[in-house]
Every structure is written in structure tokens, then in C-alpha cells.
Specification:
Blueprint lengths: L2 E4 L3 H6 L11 E6 L8 H11 L3 E6 L2 E4 L4 E5 L3 H12 L6 E4 L5 H10 L7 E4 L17 H7 L5 E2 L3 H8 L7 H15 L2 E5 L11 E5 L6 E5 L12 H16 L2 H17 L34 H8 L1 H8 L2 H8 L4 H28 L3 H26 L10 H16 L2 H28 L9 H7 L2 H20 L2 H27 L10
Parallel strand pairs: 1-11, 2-3, 2-6, 6-7, 7-8, 8-9
Antiparallel strand pairs: 4-5, 9-10, 10-11
Helix pairs in contact: 2-8, 3-4, 4-5, 6-7, 8-9, 10-19, 11-19, 12-16, 13-14, 13-15, 13-16, 13-19, 15-16, 15-19, 16-17, 16-18, 16-19
The structure holds adenosine-5'-triphosphate and 4-amino-5-hydroxymethyl-2-methylpyrimidine.
């Protein structure tokens, strides 16, 4: 037998060859008890497996009410249920490694032993848990014989010094040399490799572990040294070590190499343990100290198209328009003719102003296509206006004066055309297209739905605004506004939204004005 004393360095780790494995993410099953504070047992195992790049699975032996200060109570479900959990995993998943931790009592041990052949080919690490860091017992004293009988079925057993003594039926070793000798005896009697852990060495500055390899060059002992880290946060160190070893072993196939890799990680986890601040007793180690979370990304800029944003923003204006008495009456034909006449007269005045504003949009347009679009729109406004005069307004007596709403709306648009840039102007003119198309379409479909009676007094009007050409122009105006918005700096984007909203508000006022008109006194126009 030879004793190789190695310094636990990364250099050694990297010098050793890593055999290729079929699975890059090993499936590792922990069979253990729980720790609701997450530092030991199953919870620690899952973290350790994950930290080593494995896929962790967990079968619960006992539910343990414990924290960093101690164990309060243990609940062990019937062993038939343990068996069901084990079968559920092995019926479905190929298991690359099994870590066995707290088994609690003899019946639990027997159940696991009966199942173990189902994990043929898997690496098996047995952490013979008997007593928690806090000193509480986690294994019934009459179960020690059963646990001893389980050792030969594992590839590696990882006892601390008191557990090593129990497994051998000997007194606890008083020094490191004696402990290593005990490890050798256990390996020889069981044929299982033994990791003798030095965490419990009284008063030692070192915290060595000795690996007694029972495979290959049987009985080879390699000691991995390491300074003792000054922390009280060592809860679950043994659980974490064994689960990590099981995981790494699936990739290296060499216990010594696995130990070097895992001890380096464990040292970091102990050095950074105090950062966790979990509990008031012996806190957990920092399993994921090597993981650096990325910065929290800044909220993405508002990427939704302008049209989507403003349509949503002006929902209440739209609803208000749809439910206006004027709009309903226009739709069902019950609108008094004098109100319709007033409305059309205002609309004709509005369209003259609107046409000027569209011409300005044409003048500011960045491309010939847009210039043409706005110019054509300006022209068709004037055409609609003269058509209104020809068909509706001529011969109906004196036209009313320009109403306040009409003036205010046109002034708002003229102000935008005089003071704002192209993008804001486009946003300001858009509601006139869009809300008209929206209302016109709604009323038109209603009319069609009701049989499209030719006796509807406003059928002509309904047809104008439900016209496909108008819908096409509206879609084009929307798409121009969206492109402007996408290219606009934040201040202009805000101004575009404001301009759209103001125009949408005026649209509502405009539809409401005829109903508010006191026809007997046209001097007091709304
Ligand atoms: N303070 C420490 N500094 C450095 N390494 C330590 C320290 N305490 C324990 N270790 C290492 O942690 C691993 C677990 O050792 P330990 O002997 O404490 O096992 P354990 O008693 O089973 O653990 P647990 O605390 O989970 O019951 C070993 O590799 C040991 O060398
Ligand atoms: C469940 C469980 N397993 C193992 C230990 C040993 O740390 C513990 N405290 N709890």
C-alpha cells in the first residue's frame, strides 16, 4: 500500500485526463432526508448536483423538521411509499449516479438495498449519515448493522470520523493517522472505496480527507489536504461533498480526480458561506458561489407601434363617441335633419382647414410617395367639401357660423402644422381618418345588418366613410405615423402621442356639438 499525499491544487485537476461520457448532463439521484432550511439533506444535494453540472433528482426517505440550530422532529413515511418513489424514478429515467444520505431506520435501509439493483451501472456514493452537525441523531441505533451491510453495495462511502468508527465497531480515532488506518480496514472488509473526512479532527489547523481506493490498485490512499476555513457555517458539508462527488465521478471515472475537483469547489463554498446569512446556528455553505448572475436587464424601451399604443390610450374617447346620442341617431336614421345639416356645415368648414394642414404635411414629407399621399388627401378633402355644398348645403337656407368646436379643432391642427415637425403633424391628423373610418364602418355594418333600407336618410353619408378607398387611405396614414414614431426621439414620441390624443378628444367634441346646438339661437353655437 502506498500513501500519496497530494496538495489540492487546480493544476493537478487539469493535468488529469477526463474520459468522454455518453451524457453531458448526468442524471443524479439523491436518496435522503430533507432540510427545510435548504442547507443539508436532499436540498443540499440538489444544489450540489446542479453546481457540478448534473441533473438532480430526489427521493425522500424522511421528512426532517430541522434548521441551522438543530433537529426538531422526524417523520418517516411508510417504506412502501419510499419504494414507490424509487420505482417511479427508475421506471422512467436512466440513472447515472446515486447518492444515498440519511436512511433513518432499518426498514428504510432494507427498502433502498432491495431497490439498488435497479440502478445497475450507476455510480453509488453512500454518505452514512448518523448524526447531524448539531449533534442530533439521524439514524436509529438499532439500524447500524443494516447500514454496515449496505456499505459493500456502494462504490464509495464517505464517513466522518464518528461514523467511520461506528461502521467498524471501533472507538472514534483520536488522530489523523489512526483514522486513515480505520479507513483502510473498512475498505478492505467491504471492498468499497472509503473517503475518510477530517472535518471532525479536534483542534487541527488542517482539514484533510483521505481516499482509500478499493478499486484498481486496491488500497491506494491519497490524501487531499487543505487549510481549515474559519467559519461556523458548515451545515450540510458532508451531504454536499458526497452528492458533488457522485456527480463529478460520472465524468471522470476516477475518485481521486473527482475529489480534487470537488474539494476545490467545496473550499470556495465554505469560504463564501458567511455571505448567505441563513439562520442563527450553523448556516449552510454557498453551493453556487461560482455562479455569477448577470445584471438585471434595463426595461426594454417601448417597442409597441405608435398605432397600437394610441388606439389603446384613446379607448375611452372611442367608447364615448360610439355611445353619443348624435352617432346613434345618425346610425339608425332618427337624427333630426337640422342637426345633420349643422353637422355637415361644420364638417365642410373643418375640411377646408384640414386640407390646408394636409398640404403642409405634404410639404414636410420626407419622401415623394408620402408627399403625394398627403397632397392627394388634401385634394380629396376639398372635393368632398365642394360635393357637400353641392348635394346638401346649397338651398338649405343660411349656413350656420363656424362653431367653437370646429374652430378649436382646426386651430389645434393649424398650430401643429405651424409649430411641430412632420411626425407630430402626422399624429395630429390621424384621428380624423381613423375615428371616421371606425365610426363610419360600425354604422355602415349596422345599416347593412338591418337590411340596408334605401329609406335611410343618411345612407350616402354612411357609404362615404365605409368606402374601401377611405379605409386604404386610413391604413396608409397609420403606417406613416408608425414609421415616424419608430424613428422619433423620445421627446417627439411623447409629442406625437399628445397630438393624437388631443385630436381624438376634438373628434368626440365634434360629434357631440350638433346635439348641443341651440338651433333657435345660432349665435350661441357650441
Ligand atoms: N472548516 C472547514 N474548512 C475546510 N474544510 C472543511 C471544514 N469543515 C469540513 N470541511 C470539509 O468538508 C467535508 C465534510 O467533512 P465533515 O468531516 O465535516 O463531514 P460531515 O460531518 O459528514 O459533514 P456534516 O457537517 O454535513 O455533518 C470534508 O471534505 C471536510 O474536509
Ligand atoms: C436530512 C439530513 N441529512 C443529513 C444531515 C447531516 O448534515 C442533516 N442535517 N439532515
Amino acid at each position: 500500500m502506498s500513501i500519496r499525499t497530494l496538495v489540492d491544487t487546480v493544476e493537478h485537476t487539469e493535468a488529469l485526463s477526463v474520459p468522454a461520457r455518453a451524457r453531458t448532463i448526468p442524471h443524479v439521484l439523491s436518496i435522503a432526508g430533507t432540510d427545510p432550511t435548504g442547507g443539508a439533506g436532499l436540498q443540499a444535494d440538489l444544489k450540489s448536483i446542479g453546481a457540478q453540472g448534473g441533473y438532480g433528482m430526489a427521493v425522500v426517505t424522511s421528512l426532517v423538521a430541522q434548521n441551522t440550530r438543530g433537529v426538531r422532529s422526524v417523520h418517516t413515511p411508510p417504506s412502501t411509499f419510499l419504494d414507490e418513489q424509487l420505482q417511479a424514478v427508475s421506471d422512467d429515467v436512466t440513472i447515472d449516479a446515486v447518492k444515498i444520505g440519511m436512511l433513518g431506520d432499518a426498514e428504510t435501509i432494507r427498502t433502498v438495498r432491495r431497490w439498488l439493483p435497479r440502478s445497475t451501472g450507476a455510480v453509488i456514493v453512500l454518505d452514512p449519515v448518523m448524526v447531524a452537525t448539531s449533534g442530533d441523531r439521524l439514524l436509529a441505533s438499532d439500524a447500524e448493522d443494516e447500514l454496515r451491510a449496505l456499505v459493500p453495495l456502494a462504490d464509495l462511502v464517505t464517513p466522518n470520523l464518528p461514523e467511520l468508527a461506528v461502521l467498524l465497531g471501533e472507538p472514534v480515532a483520536t488522530g489523523w493517522e489512526a483514522a486513515v488506518e480505520q479507513g483502510k480496514r473498512l475498505a478492505a472488509s467491504t471492498g468499497t472505496s472509503v473517503l475518510v473526512k477530517g472535518g471532525h479532527l479536534e483542534g487541527a489547523l488542517e482539514c484533510p480527507d483521505a481516499l482509500v481506493d478499493a478499486s484498481g490498485d486496491a488500497g491506494t490512499v491519497s490524501v487531499v489536504g487543505g487549510t481549515r476555513i474559519d467559519t461556523r457555517n458548515t451545515h450540510g458539508t458532508g451531504c454536499s461533498l458526497s452528492a458533488a462527488l457522485a456527480t463529478v465521478q460520472t465524468r471522470t471515472g476516477n475518485w481521486h480526480q473527482s475529489l480534487l475537483i470537488v474539494k476545490k469547489w467545496l473550499r470556495g463554498a465554505l469560504e463564501r458561506a458567511d455571505e448567505l446569512n441563513v439562520g442563527q446556528g450553523n448556516g449552510p455553505i454557498h453551493h453556487f458561489h461560482e455562479f455569477v448572475p448577470g445584471p438585471i436587464p434595463a426595461p426594454p424601451p417601448e417597442e409597441r407601434p405608435f398605432s397600437e399604443q394610441v388606439w389603446e390610450l384613446t379607448t375611452s374617447h372611442r367608447l364615448a363617441i360610439e355611445t353619443l346620442g348624435f352617432v346613434r341617431a345618425l346610425g339608425d336614421g332618427s337624427l333630426p335633419p337640422e342637426q345633420f345639416a349643422y353637422y355637415l356645415a361644420q364638417d365642410a368648414m373643418y375640411l377646408r382647414g384640414y386640407s390646408r394642414v394636409l398640404s403642409r404635411a405634404s410639404a414636410l414629407a420626407p419622401s415623394e410617395a408620402e408627399q403625394l399621399f398627403w397632397a392627394k388627401s388634401a385634394l380629396s378633402c376639398l372635393e368632398v367639401e365642394s360635393e357637400l355644398h353641392r348635394t346638401w348645403l346649397t338651398g338649405r337656407g343660411q349656413s350656420p357660423a363656424q362653431g367653437r368646436v370646429t374652430r378649436a379643432y382646426v386651430d389645434h391642427l393649424l398650430a401643429a402644422s405651424a409649430n411641430a415637425g412632420y411626425a407630430v403633424l402626422v399624429a395630429a391628423v390621424l384621428p380624423c381618418y381613423w375615428l371616421y373610418a371606425h365610426v363610419g364602418n360600425a354604422l355602415h355594418s349596422q345599416w347593412i345588418g338591418n337590411g340596408a333600407g334605401t329609406d335611410h336618410p343618411y345612407a350616402n353619408w354612411l357609404e362615404t366613410y365605409a368606402d374601401p378607398a377611405f379605409a386604404e387611405a386610413t391604413a396608409r396614414a397609420i403606417s406613416i405615423a408608425d414609421s415616424c414614431f419608430a424613428a422619433a426621439p423620445p421627446a417627439d414620441r411623447e409629442a406625437m402621442i399628445e397630438a393624437f390624443e388631443a385630436s381624438a378628444w376634438y373628434e368626440h367634441e365634434f360629434f357631440d356639438a350638433p346635439t348641443r346646438l341651440d338651433l333657435r339661437d345660432s349665435a350661441k353655437l357650441p
